[in-house]
Amino acid sequence: MFFRWKPYVSAAERRKKAERAAARSARNGAALEPVRIAGRAIAGTFWGKAWCDNMERYSDFANRLPRGRTYVRNGSVIDLRIAAGKVEAQVVGSDIYKTTVTIAALPKARWKALGRDCARSIDSLVELLQGRLSRGVMERICRPETGLFPSPKEIAFACSCPDWAAMCKHVAAVLYGIGARLDQKPELLFTLREVDAKDLVARAGEDLPLAKKAPAARKLLGDPGLAEMFGIEMAGPAAPAPRGKARAATQPRPPARAKKAGGLLRRRGKR
After folding, report:
1. How far is it, in rounded angstroms, from Cα 224 to Cα 228?
2. Of 97, 113, 155, 174, whose Cβ has the fewest other Cβ atoms within 10 Å?
3. Distances (CA, A) of 237 to 8, 141, 240, 249
4. pLDDT tens, residue by residue, 24-39
5. What is the 3 state secondary structure string of the chain?
6. What is the pLDDT of residues 42-101, one digit of tens each?
7. Edge to edge, what strands does the sheet with 96-103 contain?
8. β-bridge mates for residue 155, sequence order
9. 96-103 and 155-159 as β-strands: parallel, antiparallel, unpaired?
10. Quick one: 168 exposed, middle or buried, by C-beta within 10 A (0-12, 13-18, 19+)?
């Protein structure tokens, strides 16, 4: 008995299946969380792109990667949920397949070492609390062996499709989808590796000076900074003081008696 592949399903037909699945899920009270890609670029931030570059090392069949990119771009990843140590997704192909990506928790020793390493790349505690994240810090967070990105031995895949490859096109689509999701919610990378981002902030700020010259603008990332990534609420800048007549109008006038008394004292002083 020989296995036969299911017939090819066009992107248009997959989109129709995705719409029907979304409607069916909504009726059951469980809304899907699809991956939506605008344009050709799957990820736009430094960490999103780095994730996609890193995951390509896991592929055992290179032809699955471009097909995975096509699937994620045309909306075939109709549901993707990132939790502690696991990603669960649904991908539309010739059928709707369930895909799971399991990632090991980050070892505690590695997490502590990462905190110490990142502290060396932050110029001051003021910079840290202002959410000014340098490229050096992000590069350390995104390193496969010493950062938060998992190495091949720390990640495993499963898909309900009949493909015998460890990374089928549906798994590849989900992995690219994770990169796209990290673009929007980078804090999910910490959730995935089961570490608390606030610990990194605390460790990085332990021995930093309170006052030091800020780094040059060219050394800072243009992407959302540390405040957005770690969920720190920053106070906005104070409003500038009013000038001219507007400023004078805001100051209360002295009582009439006080003004008269002051004039009397000045006149007596002249005598």
Report:
1. 6
2. 113
3. 57, 29, 9, 23
4. 766 676 788 999 998 8
5. CCCCCCCCCCHHHHHHHHHHHHHHHHHCCCCCCCCCCCCCCCCCCHHHHHHHHHHHHHCCCCCHHHHHHHHHHCCCEEEEEEECCEEEEEEECCCEEEEEEEECCCCHHHHHHHHHHHHCCCCCHHHHHCCCCEHHHHHHHCCCCCCCCCCHHHEEEEECCCCCCCCCHHHHHHHHHHHHHHHHCCCHHHHHCCCCHHHHHHHHHCCCCCCCCCCCHHHECCCCCHHHHHCCCCCCCCCCCCCHHHHHHHCCCCCHHHHHHHHHHHHHHHC
6. 999 888 999 999 888 777 667 789 999 999 998 999 999 999 999 999 999 888 899 999
7. 77-83, 86-92, 96-103, 155-159
8. 103
9. antiparallel
10. buried
Query: What token pair was written down for 130?
Result: 């202002």
**HSE toward the beta carbon, residue 263, CA cutoff 13 A:** 6
Task: Give the C-alpha separation, 34 to 72, whole Å.
Answer: 10
User: Are residues 101 and 171 in contact, defined by beta-carbon separation less than 8 angstroms?
Assistant: yes
Paired tokens of 95: 């059928």
Residues 182 and 72 sit within 8 Å (Cβ to Cβ): no
Q: Where are the domains of the chain?
A: 11-227
